[in-house]
Each structure stands twice: as structure tokens, then as C-alpha cells.
Amino acid sequence: MTYCVGILVREGLVMIADTRTNAGVDNISVFRKLHLFEAPGRLVIGLASAGNLAVSQSVLTLLTEGFENPKTGETERLISADSMFKAAQMVGRAIRQVHRVDGITQEQQQSGAFDVTVLLGGQVKGGRLRLFMVYSAGNFIEATTDTPYLQIGEHKYGKPILDRSITEQTDLYDALKLGLISMDSTIRSNLSVGLPIDLLVVRRDAIEPDLTYRIDETEPYFHDLRERWSAALREAHQAIPKPPYRMSSDGSEPGD
């Protein structure tokens, strides 16, 4: 399992992904799940994946090296996409092609479910900055002003933080901070998600990364953020009055 989140705000895009993969508690490895595709001045795209690692790597290889579009006969590479919508369609086709080639054999051998989900975010020059989630079937949805973030993998622990705090108007680096808090909450609650964490920040219309960064166990800001967030939660719950729901001395309920 993994956790990846993309946040699309007025100023730009934030993408965050952990790197842990595991096949049991004693078989844990580190693999990069957030990848950057860049053609300077023309295109910048971040791609994060969750699910079966073999499937994810096959999809990534197709998108990098190229594969044939059955309708046009042309070789397609993600770096050659001329719009983000077409890039999302291309990711969907790559997933379906891997499924056609490998899916039946994998299911017959019971080596694991064919499962991959992709976050795709970025901008092609002349187009809008966009964020998509592409499913295992190859279809996809897009982040909107009403839902400015998308998550894949083990998302439930980090979702309440984003629900309460992220809007389209959120400052770009506040969005990064909130995404990291969301990631920390997930890491604390699920052993299948862990450091290092990869980050990508893209400013709207810049057509280049504003930040690419990896956070490991020694990174001071993330350590400080974890401690401050834990302390803030303790202070917040201590500042809220205790519930008035106590039994009276005669055994009656409050308000009787």
C-alpha cells in the first residue's frame, strides 16, 4: 500500500508520495512513486502511482519509452502530449495495454490483483494546470474548485485534515504544509506507508517545477512539523470543555 496526494490551488499544484512497498511485515522496500516528466518551456507533468508495483512500473515504462496507439498507429510518449486531457487519456491507454498483455497471466497465477491507480498533474504550455486521477480501468476524473485535491492508496487517515483545511484559495506552500500533515497522520496510523517522501510543486503557468524534494528520516522541517502538529492537537482538545454528559447522583440523566 502507499499514500499519494495531489492538491490543486489557485497558485499551483502540489504532489506528495511516500515510497514504501511491502509484501508482509518483514519484506519492506523503498521505490519512488512520484515521477517528473518535463520538456522545459513546453510541458511539466507529475505522475504518482499506487497499487501493484509490477503493474505500475510497466505502465511507467510504456509512458516513458512509448507505445503504439491502436487507432492511429503512432508511437505515444507522455512527454509528447499536447494537452493534459490527452496525457490522461494516454495513461489510461497504457494501463489497459498492460492489462491486456499481463492481466490474464497474473490472474491465472494468482500472483496478486491487477491494481493500479495514478495521479497525473501538470500543465502543457497554452493549456490549463490540471490534476487527474486515472483508475485501473483506464477511465479518470479531474480535480475541481469544489474538490481541489485527489488521493490514492491509503487515503482515509489523511483525508479529514484536507477536508477541513484545503480550498482553491489556499496558499501554495500552505497546501504543501497541509499535505505533509496529511502524510504524517497516515504514516502514524498505517505501517504500509512510510518515509522517504517525494514532493513536487508547480506554479501555475510557470511550465517548470518550483520544487522537487525528498524528505527522509533526518529532514529537520518534517520532524519539527510532526512535533508541532501533535502538540497543537493536544492543546486543542485540552482547550475544549469536557462533555457535560454525566449521571446525576440519584442516577438520573442530565436534564432530568
Written account of the structure:
32% of the residues lie in helices and 29% in strands. The protein has 256 residues and is of the alpha+beta class. The protein has one domain: Glutamine Phosphoribosylpyrophosphate, subunit 1, domain 1, CATH 3.60.20.10. A 5-stranded antiparallel beta sheet has the order 12-1-2-13-14, covered by helices on one side. Strands 5-6-9-10-11 form a 5-stranded antiparallel beta sheet. The model has no long low-confidence stretch (mean pLDDT 92).
In short:
The protein has 256 residues and is α+β, with helices and mostly antiparallel strands.
**How helix-rich are the residues, as a percent range?**
25-40%
CATH superfamily placement: Aminohydrolase, N-terminal nucleophile (Ntn) domain
Global geometry: globular
Structural class: alpha+beta
Tell me the CATH topology: Glutamine Phosphoribosylpyrophosphate, subunit 1, domain 1
Instruction: Indicate the CATH class.
Output: Alpha Beta
Instruction: List the uncertain runs.
Output: none
CATH architecture: 4-Layer Sandwich
User: What average pLDDT do the residues reach?
Assistant: 92
Main β-sheet, in a few words?
A: 5 strands, antiparallel
How much of the residues is beta strand, in percent?
25-35%
**Order of the strands making up the biggest sheet:** 12-1-2-13-14
Radius of gyration: 21 Å
Number of helices: 5
Say how many strands there are. Answer: 14
Order of helices and strands: EEEEEEHEEHEEEEHHEEH
**End-to-end Cα distance:** 50 Å
Instruction: Please indicate the count of domains.
Output: 1
